[in-house]
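Predict the structure of GrpB family protein.
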Amino acid sequence: MFAKPIIDVLIGVKTLELNNSITNKLMQLGYEGFGETGVKGRLYFRKRQEHAYNLAVVIWNGEQWVNNILIRNYLRDNPHVAKQYRERKLNAINKGYTTLLSYSDEKAEYVSNLLEQAKKSSG
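Done. Here is the predicted structure for GrpB family protein.
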């Protein structure tokens, strides 16, 4: 599956109310915090140094967790769909949607449809 040269990490927690200790530790490690950034139920952190990382912090087994896992599994099971998704992401980048919000907005409808397909496929 195509991916940007960024490592995406999904972290499941009991509560999104991270204490200052955790947030401060992430900041010490070079991460920037962006809050929910347009996705309710997800806290977003990123690190851009030698390697690039995105951290999505969500409720373990909550809606965001389940949806991300459903899409991941669906793409793994359907290489032709993964290829289409790859092309969609490349097109978004080539059109200049390179900031987090613009890139996410550009592919939001596609990802929503992808999630519906994944839900139907999983039974």
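The chain has two domains: 6-59, 63-122.
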